[in-house]
Amino acid sequence: MQEHGSGNLVGTLVDNRYQVKSRLARGGMSTVYVATDQRLERDVALKVLHPHFVSDDTFLDRLAREAKAAAKLSHPHVVGVLDQGTDGQIAYLVMEYIKGHTLRDVLNEKGALSPRLALALIDPVAEGLAAAHSAGLIHRDIKPENVLIANDGRIKVGDFGLARAVTTSTSTGTLIGTVAYLSPELVLGKPADARSDIYSVGIMLYEMLTGRQPFEGDVPIQVAYQHVHGTVEAPSAQVPGLASEVDELVQWCTAGDPENRPVDGNALLSELRHIRTNLSDAELDLQPPAARKDNAAASGVKEPGARQEATEVVIGAAEPTEIIARANNPTTVLPANIAPAALQASRPVGLPQDPELPLRPLGKREQRKLERDDERARNRAAATPVRSLREGDPRRRGALWIVVLVIAAVLATGAGWFFGMGPGSPGTIPDVANKTVAEAQQLLGTAGFQSNTKDVFDDDVPSGLVVGSDPEAGREIRKFQPVALFVSKGPQLFPLPEMTGKSLDQAKSTLNEAEMALGPVTEKFDETAPVGTVLAQDPAPGTAVKRGTPVSLTVSKGPQPIPVPDVRGKSQDEAVKTLEAAGLKAVIATETVNDKNVPKGAVAAQAPASGTLTKGQPVTLTVSKGPKLVEVPSFIGKQADDARKALEKLGFQVRVNNILGGFFGTVRDQDPVETEVPEGSVVTLTVV
To answer: Catalytic residue at 247?
Structure first.
């Protein structure tokens, strides 16, 4: 681990794995960099939290839990969370790196959008949120900066690394989000759920249709006040001619009471696609009035309401603009549970307490609601008597009052019991993590709570054990409120792809695409597979494993080299056996050679004589015919010195046997003489 601060990390290595290449953006909670994952050899987005979050152990623990929950979500319209950790004074998230731009860039360029384009862009956002909500995740910070549009047209919702996982908790001591898009319940510090994300989508859709945000203020608290006490106007007030169904969709999503919004992303997606299908081409292609910021951008002057927010989610681009200092409306950290008095004191001058919507024709949903309200009103009127049954009897009225007082006393006593000792009394949720379902239900039952179960994937808690509860352990609630137990199904598993037969580089790419890790790589000789080819993998192909599982690979080093044995001087049969035992092929040359030092039938030469070969390669053997025969001339009667020189020149060895001292130096006898003998034979001269 390197010791480095939390300043500009460009050029540093984080956690001995992520090589930081460049800085992309800075927001209210973090700075984001492009980094290279050296283990998997791919570019990633590295989000580094600001120092004051790193010192908060509780925050880091919650971040770790939420990052794990987000990493389990795999969907084509959600930016993947790949890793999370700390390195000294650095806490970081690793996310999928996407080259392209954001929805904010589209709004900055085009201003207001046609209904067709706005609904087409919001559709994958709703689909991504639907998948997240089904997996038990909420985002809490939906905004145009977190809608990423890749260069190939893919649209993804980013920054789920800081989302709130339902499996852990739905409330916190701080308010984290972008104030322009915060739901009223988040502003007031109330628990957030999927409907809080729906509210933010509605605000974002309003901005896409009109080119401006519905609520504005000089300081964030003024905008927060309007979210709580104001009402989002119909976008048709800014875009005349807009279809009433689109108005209804925006106001349905941005209802102040969460009960009046779509229950989650799935409900929103269904209604959104229904509207897109039923609107006419003229309604879909309605061109909104030119956005004011178009002219302002041309003159270099910022128009009021034309917001440019610092992004908290990273988007890669061929030439990314680095937003560091400018942050008009960034992701914000505010105190939770903002007091109503504080909001009232911050109310902008002239802001009405209950803003009214401009008059317009009622939409289909509003007509249905009015019809239901009218029917309920008629039913109540029919059940109300028009006159008393009996009048003017004081004793009866006194008795009735006694009965009323007795009933009131009984009700008061019952209410006191209900809220003091009964089901309405407060209780503290016990810690049920890592317990069996039976144990957890027994603990909750003993504490007076009723519970239900929901299965979830979890990488750390074994299957069948409880991951946590909602509300979380330690929370105090009324005992009649239900408690959800999240039961682990174990880690979510994915089949491993086949990598045998691929090159090592291809195998790395396959692992990268499957979001698996590269484990140890070992090399092995193989007689058939080319160098660098994957011979085996562990775990085997098709094995179900969780994301990030390291996969060990065995890679070919090519055929094993074999040292060539020296078989010269050995008999032909022995030489062939030696070569074959070494894995080589013996080839006998058709021609033989004379060799005075190698017996006939033995190997006189081989090619190659040394070095290495691979299995099955040939070694050529040349067999000796033995030494060649040479005619020995007679030197009898000649001088010994002359005879010696002549014989040695012919290749013979000469031995001299002197008689009487060899006084005369004359050869008296010779053996052998005048016959053929092998080259190099010994010729004996008898000299007198």
So the answer is: no
